[in-house]
Write a structure and sequence with these properties.
- By secondary structure, this protein is α/β, with parallel strands linked by helices.
- The protein folds into two domains: 183 residues, Glycogen Phosphorylase B (Rossmann fold, 3-Layer(aba) Sandwich), CATH 3.40.50; 144 residues, Rossmann fold (3-Layer(aba) Sandwich), CATH 3.40.50.
- The strands form two sheets. It has a seven-stranded parallel β-sheet with strand order 3-2-1-4-5-6-7, sandwiched between helices.
- Strand 1, helix 1 and strand 2 form a beta-alpha-beta unit.
- Helix 1 packs across helix 7 and helix 9 runs parallel beside helix 14.
Length: 353
């Protein structure tokens, strides 16, 4: 049996590591061919990256990236179609909501190759987000949809997708968190940064709706500063460039550090007091480590976390952000919204039937 897995970013490599281990444990007869489109190929993805995280190296790197959404998606489809015609896989497996996800699903569907979509059913209901378009279209192309949550399953049912095509399996990132938390390592932090007993806020800012809007970005930094909290911000290069371009003042209580690797990020998530982010993945990882989260967006795909009191939406409102950071208290009771940490096994069992 042959499975082509399409990935386009380092985090998708981490997710695929869960499935790759599950494939090997399930059957030696499954050949997984991993294709990295190059959409967000990270220069740090060296041999050390793959060895430390126990991640299989891609069999192919298409080297496509740097263009517009339309350019990237079209070029990816062209390359992926040729590869699929050569390999003749039994399944094409895609993750989440990147341009690579949609390109892989479209190329496979046109060749009548079954598509499996991991992380199906997520909805922010904001059609201005490219990710929302990618995930909706991929869900309606896929032949089997692996929903991480009951909310996701209900979203798919409400859109008319047949119940028999939807499998509620839990979240592969919960599997990954359980696997990697013992491997986490402390990042290099400024010597003058005095953090005791995890008394700091971990912050990430990268989403275009915030970085490309000077007023939103200024509001966010104002709210972070007004809170007076000790805040550690591994700053994304895109955000750093926009801070300089818009002349945004970084408050003295916000400690900007260089971007960190996945294992360092896991350490920060595990040891912080709470998280402030505009990242969909980090919201969820905060929950895995039982940390309250303030989300600097106007909506989120992870609605169950908001409803349960784990996540609080502050948008880009300085006052709301300050208030949320200052009012963070003990997190509510932990519930298994995202499965039992065996999503990888469940997915592999369905694909290899």
């Amino acid at each position: 049996m042959k499975v082509i897995t399409i990935i386009g970013a380092s985090l998708q490599c981490t997710k695929d590591a869960v499935l790759s281990r599950a494939f090997k444990e399930h059957s030696l007869d499954v050949q997984e061919i991993i294709v990295h489109t190059g959409q967000h190929y990270d220069a740090n993805m060296s041999d050390v990256f793959f060895d430390e995280l126990d991640i299989p190296r891609p069999d192919y790197n298409l080297g496509i990236g740097g263009g517009t959404h339309g350019q990237n998606t079209g070029r990816m489809m062209e390359k992926l179609e040729g590869l699929m015609m050569d390999v003749q896989p039994d399944w094409v497996l895609v993750y989440g909501d990147t341009d690579s996800t949609l390109a892989g699903a479209l190329a496979a569907a046109k060749l009548h190759i079954p598509v499996a979509h991991v992380e199906a059913g997520l909805r922010s209901f904001n059609r201005r987000m490219p990710e929302e378009i990618n995930r909706v279209l991929t869900d309606h192309i896929a032949d089997i949809l692996f929903a991480p949550t009951e909310t996701g399953r209900q979203n798919l049912l409400s859109e008319g997708i047949a119940e028999s095509m939807i499998k509620l399996v839990g979240d592969v990132m919960y599997d990954a968190t359980l696997f990697y938390k013992e491997k986490a390592r402390k990042p290099k932090l400024p010597a003058e940064l005095d953090i005791q007993g995890g008394d700091f806020v971990l912050c990430t800012i990268h989403r275009a709706e915030n970085t490309d809007d000077p007023q939103r970005l200024k509001n966010i930094f104002q709210g972070l500063g007004d809170s007076g909290e000790h805040i550690i911000l591994p700053m994304h290069p895109r955000t750093r460039a926009k801070v300089a371009e818009w002349g945004v003042a970084v408050p003295g209580n916000v400690w900007v550090i260089d971007p960190v690797g996945y294992l360092e990020m896991v350490w920060l998530e595990a040891n912080c007091r709470c998280v402030a982010t505009d990242s969909g993945g980090v919201q969820k990882e905060a929950y895995f480590f039982e940390k309250p989260c303030i989300t600097m967006r106007d909506e989120t795909e992870w609605v169950e976390l908001v409803e349960a009191g784990w996540n609080r939406l502050a948008g880009a409102d300085a006052g709301k952000l300050q208030k949320a950071l200052n009012e963070v208290s003990e997190a509510p009771h932990f519930e298994q919204f995202y499965g039992e940490g065996d999503a990888g096994r469940r997915i592999v069992e369905q694909v290899t039937v």
